[in-house]
Amino acid sequence: MKHTQIGMSAAAGIVCLIVQNLSAAVVTFETVPLGPNSHWDGSDLSGTPGAPGFYGEVPYTQVKQIEGAGFRNTNTPLFGSWSGFAISNHTDTTTPGYGNQYSAITGIGAGGSANYAVGYYATYEETTNVTLASLTNLAGYGASITNTTYTALNMLNGGGGGKKFGGVTGNDADWLLLTISGYANGLATGTSVDFYLADYSPLGTSDDYIVTDWKYVDFTPLGTVDELRFSMTSSDVGKYGINTPTYFALDNLSIPEPSSIWFALSGLGLMIRRKR
């Protein structure tokens, strides 16, 4: 019995080492076929139709599987609207307004790639979610995130109901926050990661910023999860909610290779059986 316990302990230590050094599967979105300066937002109605709403609108919802992760999308053709995630390769970094909602402010994907995801957080639907194949420890993993052109220029200049961040004097303490929350088996884990897409210091303008390049966001604090839920809050809030356009761009989402996890766990089982 004593030898069995020592064997299991040693095997557990080895598998922990293996798990900590698993290769990452990086979701680049490059496998999604797009024409030049185009996007996918579920308007092909490839999702599953839901129950009609008050005005007879029918939402089409799906979790689009892309390179090992699922990206939730809802498209409502009657309203010409969508929420959740779209996939884009638009490059317009100068045109303000809703008509340019699919462009990252960088004009290109992270690391110079073409495709990236655009997230739109709708507070009335809360469908900006990413699902993983199984419960996954995200220690050492993360993603690149930046603003969309629509959101960045709105914060910089104001317009369309959105406030120019900093106000007339530039001293208003405005901010736009993206929060990534962890879920496991449909339940909140209580873990989250905050990333400011813009932050204007209340003490002046020297430290004010709007994110205009790709920034790596570490998901380690999320722990073991099988779903990421993205939400947004802002200092600019009106009668109907956030005035700032609630968009962000995401690329190069890294997660452990599922096959590597299975290999590691299978190896542990084999070692224990042999020791016995």
Question: How would you describe this protein?
Answer:
With 276 residues, the chain is an alpha+beta fold. It folds into two domains: 1-23 and 257-276; 24-255, Jelly Rolls. Helices cover 17% and strands 37% of the residues. It contains three helices and 18 strands. It has helices spanning 2-20, 149-157, 258-275; strands at 24-27, 39-40, 48-49, 60-66, 69-76, 81-88, 116-120, 129-137, 142-146, 175-184, 187-199, 209-210, 215-218, 224-234, 237-238, 241-242, 247-251, 253-256. The strands form three sheets. Strands 2, 3, 4, 5, 6, 7, 8, 9, 10, 11, 12, 13, 14 and 17 form a 14-stranded antiparallel sheet that branches. The protein has a two-stranded antiparallel sheet with strand order 1-18. Strands 15-16 form a two-stranded antiparallel ribbon. Helix 1 packs antiparallel against helix 3 (258-275). The longest helix is centred in the N-terminal third of the chain and has 19 residues, at 2-20. It is globular. Residues 1-21 and 260-276 have low confidence and may be disordered.
What CATH architecture label of the largest domain applies? Sandwich
Write down the Rg: 21 Å
Profile the largest sheet.
Answer: 14 strands, antiparallel
Number of DSSP E strands: 18
Structural class: alpha+beta
Q: How do the helices and strands follow one another from N- to C-terminus? A: HEEEEEEEEEHEEEEEEEEEH
